Amino acid sequence: MDAYYTSGLSLKELKTLYEPIKRLSDSDIIKLFPMLELDDACPLCGGALSAPRISRGVKGSTANSYYDQQVICTNCGKTKTEIEKEYQESIRITKIRAAYSGDAVEFVWGHYDANRLDDVVFETLVSSYGILNNTYLKPLLVKPLMIDFFDECKRLLRLGYIRPSAVFNNWLNGFEVEDDGVSFYWLDVPFSVNLVDYVPLKANKVFVRDNTEFINIGEGEYELWQQTAKGLLMDYIDDQMWEGDYECEGLKREELQTLLRPLLSKYSPAQIASMVWSAMAVAEKQANEGPSYKKTGNWAAGVIINRAKRALAEGWDIRPNLISCNVEPTPFEDHLFRVHIPLGETWMYRRIPPLVNGRVEIAPALAPQGKVPATAEMIELAMTIAEEHDLDEPNYLSFDETRDFISVYR
Ligand SMILES: [Zn+2]
């Protein structure tokens, strides 16, 4: 190497002087030279960086010239590109962890109040998505049926009860480092929670008085029930609109949403879905026959609204439909209708009577034709049995199956 770089001999001269390199190509001879040790350390491990030398044939190159793109760490063996990438990633992670490593505000479980929607939503989050002894919530990933669910989550965040957490390597992708700070995506990040003396809630009791079934529930639980049923129906309406290639935004949509509350006190979600379905069929017929303004989502929404108002005013008898669309309940609803409102999936077939003195009368379930659903009392009992024995629950829309399940395991 000295002969080449310092004394200035050519590669051709080197080949005649040194027998072992006689048959090597020029570039292979250069590769034999020891790497150039750089006056720089690897930002990852602190090892020395070095790089291959450059042939004198390249214009302007000296004994100290090297291939910048081929710099490698002599300690960890990583290339310059790898080092740069990992270094940037470690800076990114440090920024994320600095921004999201704090603890959540303590939630003293003894103060849990079923009358507060915040508390009920929080409890639902913890029970459905809690991990590591409920010190964290895993990423929410799914969209719950409940309308305004994320507004509720944002309230819990403002109150400090849930806090995005960057402690898990698996879920760092949910955070985004920007010029002016770090942001996160609601659905993709875990949250830390800080529960004091947490005890999982037991299911609310169903009781019977004068042949009528009741449950004791709080205002927050009642609100979550209503909002969930509304969410289910808005999803259903959106799905129907989407199928008709319509959009339903603005005032008509708000009017629809407002109507859902009185509707739900008279009809089950399944009956309302059935009414929406037939209204959409009417709207489609009118759209095919009528002028172009009838071919809009607003027109279709108007048809639904008119039917809903008439149904309420005239007390229509509506048959329930199986809600057949891309609306799937999530673990949040499973939990809500197992613990807070223990009705299982039959909730979709029951209207929502008023909350009076902390109790709700359970309306009979009107299941689609050919199905006789279990009573609330049977459902509650079957849920307890299934939990005690770690069994799959029976289909509560089948009275017989639920009855047999209870008698077998009792
Ligand atoms: Zn290194």
Number of helices: 13
Distance between the termini: 90 Å
Total strand count, please?
Answer: 15
Assembly state of the chains shown: single chain
Which radius of gyration do the C-alpha atoms yield? 34 Å
- Domain count: the total is 4
Give the CA-based shape: elongated
What portion of the residues fall into strands of 2 or more residues?
A: 5-15%
Short description:
The longest helix has 25 residues, at 219-243.
Description:
By secondary structure, the protein is of the alpha+beta class. It has four domains: 2-92, no CATH class; 100-196, no CATH class; 220-314, no CATH class; 331-409, no CATH class. The protein is built from 13 helices and 15 strands. It has helices at residues 2-6, 11-17, 26-32, 80-99, 117-129, 149-159, 219-243, 250-266, 269-289, 297-314, 331-340, 376-388, 399-409; strands spanning 36-41, 48-51, 72-73, 106-108, 130-131, 136-137, 163-164, 175-178, 181-184, 191-192, 194-196, 206-209, 212-216, 355-356, 359-361. The strands form five sheets. A four-stranded antiparallel sheet has the order 5-6-10-7. It has a four-stranded antiparallel sheet with strand order 12-13-15-14, with helices on one face. It has a three-stranded antiparallel sheet with strand order 1-2-3, with no helix packed on it. A hairpin with a 2-residue loop joins strand 12 (206-209) and strand 13. Helix 7 (219-243) runs antiparallel to helix 11. The longest helix is centred in the middle third of the chain and has 25 residues, at 219-243. The N and C termini lie far apart (90 Å). The model has no long low-confidence stretch (mean pLDDT 90). The structure holds zinc ion.
